[in-house]
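Re: beginner question about structure tokens

> Can someone show what the tokenized structure looks like for a real chain? I only ever see the sequence side.

Sure, here's an example I had lying around. Input first:
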Amino acid sequence: MKSLIRLRMSCHDAHYGGNLVDGAKILQLFGDVATELLIINDGDEGLFKAYDNIEFIAPVYAGDYIECEGQITGFGNTSRKMVFEARKVIRQRPDINDSAAEVMEETIVVCKASGTCVVPKDKQRK
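And the corresponding structure tokens:
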């Protein structure tokens, strides 16, 4: 089972000079993917317990379109192991003009992570 979301990073997401987006924004998106996976699997939003690993690989800028995908890779009684990957699929092209953008022929992986979520037994509905 997989979940996929795609959205545009806005100027409000930019936290650093040069319109660089904070890595925490990508982790927020991973949280949204995890929530959808738990709802599909358990009928409850559950809780994100911990990340096992986070690797920031490439920068993300305001105007970039990011696609975040996740899947459940392991099941315990209440725990769900998950892996996540965020990819840049459209990028801004300020070198051309201030509103230029392009769909990328090859996506760029910007972040990978793995973690564990928990759905208490009394909240599992499936």
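Each token stands for a local structural state, so reading them left to right follows the chain. The first helix runs from residue 23 to 42.
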